[in-house]
Amino acid sequence: MDLSVKNRIEYETVSLNEAEGAVEILDQTLLPGKVRMVRLRTAREIWEAIYQLRVRGAPAIGVAAAFGIYILARGIDTEDCRIFYEEFRKQKDYLNSARPTAVNLSWALDRMDAVYKKNTGCSVSEIKEKLRQEAVSIKEEDIRVCRKIGEYGLGLLKPGDGILTHCNAGYLAACRYGTATAPIYLGQERGYGFRVFADETRPLLQGARLTAYELSAAGVDVTLICDNMSATVMKKGWVNAVFVGCDRVAANGDTANKIGTSVVAAVAARYGIPFYVCAPTATIDMSMPSGESIPVEQRPAEEVTEMWYKERMAPEGIKVFNPAFDVTDNELVTGIITEYGIAEPPFRESLEEIFRIKKGL
Ligand code: MRU
Predict the structure, then answer these.
(1) Residue 173 near residue 242 (C-beta atoms within 8 A)
(2) Rounded to an integer, what distance in angstroms lies between the CA atom of residue 138 and that of residue 134?
(3) From the candidates 113, 161, 247, 285, which is the catalytic residue?
């Protein structure tokens, strides 16, 4: 695909194709070389697309799961609510097992489950319609939430700033704007002229394949760097702030995000550069007291030893440790940018305050 002829990504990351009875996704494993939309109809297809990172990034995973469980619920052929719910729960538990770290997966599925519980007096077909509406609102909310995060984030920046980001917490990881990229896109619209450094993000290269792709397609000045170059660009004074996304934030502000994030945070602290986590409240898990309880996904060794290479780049049989995420200690986090404002240390108190605001208290 020729990026020069496009100034923005024109594809929906994840959408509901009601007529085809499918969740439609942009297959991110093929980017940036190929743009292919894929229709997911069965539980296995939806699960596999999430597990294989065809659809990925915490918010997009949540939306895909919500549309997915709706499509599966739609296909449950019974008018008996009890039988319907038994089958619904089975499918929900199956989808929930696709990836453990991004809390948005269980958060979205639990929201869909709550639709059934709130409407026990309704017929199966009424419940199906309410499930559709809930899934659509989860997607619409994501767009609004990311935009709000963008506004709060932009308030922390000035024209011409250098911003470093890790992995892809962009348009592709959500439904529009992204989280860490939302201030960048809003700044771009307003002529801020940011210079962005995108970490390539080993081993699955979300930074190189996705962040570099979507930001350059939007006309942002983006420079790709290897993961081990962040200290160099920071030491040179090229980075004014780090913005990253997250897969789960614990009640004390410890933050799980793509492996390597905590290294960036430690280096940023060394050079006195603020490190911001962009977090929809859907990604904040107040039931986890600290990052120690966050489940961290382990991925296959082949992602490190051979994926992307023409030939294997490590000895056969070598031991490989391949956690997909790490947990950044809250002391390294300057602020957590949510759709309700920016939480600052101490996070236990400030995050509780964010949820009070959310509840309108
Ligand atoms: O394994 P991935 O590609 O799903 O990991 C994605 C990330 O770590 C993102 O930074 C995170 O989900 C936030 S996306 C707005």
Answers:
(1) no
(2) 6
(3) 247
CA of 354 to the centre of ligand 1 (A): 22
**Residue 126 burial by CB count (10 A; 0-12/13-18/19+): exposed, middle or buried?**
exposed
Establish whether residue 26 lines the binding site of ligand 1, counting it when its CB lies within 6 angstroms of any ligand atom.
no
Q: Collapse the DSSP code of 127 into the 3-class scheme (helix H, G, I; strand E, B; otherwise coil) and give the result.
A: helix
Contact between 202 and 176 (Cβ < 8 Å):
no
Q: Which residues contact 150 (CB under 8 A, 6 or more apart)?
A: 177, 182, 183, 185, 186
Tokens of 138: 């989860």
Which is it for the CA torsion 201, 205, 211, 213, positive or negative?
Answer: positive
Alpha-carbon span 219 to 7, nearest angstrom: 6
pLDDT at 3 over 60: no
Rg for the chain (alpha carbons), in Å? 20
User: Is-catalytic flag, 77?
Assistant: no
The closest-lying atom of ligand 1 relative to the alpha carbon of residue 206 is: 3
Task: Classify strands 248-250 and 284-285 as parallel, antiparallel or unpaired.
Answer: parallel
What's the N-to-C CA distance of the chain in angstroms?
A: 49
Q: Is the CB of 167 under 6 A from ligand 1?
A: yes
Tell me, using a 6 A CB cutoff, whether residue 246 lines ligand 1: yes
Helices then strands, each counted (H, E), the chain: 12, 14
For the record, the structure tokens of 184 come out as 């960048």
What pLDDT is recorded for position 193?
96
Instruction: Single out the residue of 283, 261, 259 nearest to residue 358, CA to CA.
Output: 283
d(CA 282, CA 306): 35
Q: Which pLDDT band holds residue 9 (cuts at 50, 70, 90)?
A: confident
The residue to which tokens 């030491």 are assigned = 235
Residue of 187, 203, 191, 131 lying closest to 154 (CA atoms): 187
**In sequence order, what are the beta bridge partners of 196?**
163, 222
DSSP 323: B
Burial status of residue 207 (CB atoms within 10 A of its CB: 0-12, 13-18, 19 or more): buried
Give the pLDDT confidence of 187-215 residue by residue, as tens digits: 999 999 999 999 999 999 999 999 999 99
